[in-house]
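ok so I'm stuck.
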Amino acid sequence: MPRNSEMKPSTSIFFSCFFFPTMKFTAVLLALASTVLAQGASIGAPAEGSSATTGRNITVMIEQPNSLSSIEQVAIVIGLVHCGSESSCPEPANGLGVILYAGPFDPQYATPPGSLPPHQNLSLQVPETFPVGYAQLGVAHAYLLGV
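replied:
not stuck anymore, here's the structure
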């Protein structure tokens, strides 16, 4: 982080659309597909329409739904991609953009229990060089189901 004398004026970006591509490494029958699809992680915060300042940290909450099956977490990747406008975010299959986090995922239950699904909060810095305007925050989640 630059010293105060080196700080540049900050600019804002606005989170307008989110996507949640999920990579699943499973060994289950097709009949269980609806159960498997419910296992993926999602972004609980920041909310759609939130704003952030380049060069500053944002708190990203990744939620993992409760599961009846055993899940071994492998990793998550969180990325931020610039959108031309609020309605022109790229398709999720086109990638995660600038990677803000790639690493372990260890969701925990909230206190008091039942107030939130298992989740993990991460403090991530929006790069100072990230373009001003609308952005899309995404998460890719890799896990093993039924191990």
